[in-house]
Amino acid sequence: EYTNSDNPFGDAHLLESFVWHKKREKDGEQHLKEEEMRRREKLRQHEAKEREHEKQTREEERETLQREKEADSFKEWEEQEDQFHLEQAKLRLKLRIQDGR
Fold it and tell me: Residue 37's closest CA among 19, 14, 60, 62?
């Protein structure tokens, strides 16, 4: 395990959390206290989790709708198949009657 004084990177601040000072300045956050920064970061993470959850929910709904659509399509195909076999049976019966069998 590394320490601030004993690490192969020569980093005296290795164990501290990295802060993008230029980014904080750009975002106008350089005046905020560390506590407020942590609170905002937690809020960002929470919002990201919510967005991910919403995305997953939408995807599940889309998949459910797709399965329902496929089931309806299969049911329609099955009905057409049954109708075709019924028509074929009627046609065979009609031909047998015509042939006198």
Answer: 19
| Cα torsion angle, 28, 30, 33, 39, sign | positive
Q: Sign of torsion, CA 30 16 9 11?
A: positive
Query: Smallest Cα–Cα separation from 94: which of 81, 80, 86?
Result: 86
Q: Which H helix or E strand runs over 63?
A: helix 34-99
Report the largest interatomic distance among the alpha carbons of the chain, rounded to a whole angstrom. Answer: 106
Structure tokens at 37: 């920064």
Terminal-residue alpha carbon distance, the chain: 94
29-44 pLDDT tens trace: 777 787 887 888 899 9
Give how far Cα 86 sits from Cα of 18, 82, 91, 94, 101, Å: 75, 6, 9, 12, 20
Q: In terms of Cα–Cα distance, which of 16, 18, 20 is closest to 3?
A: 16
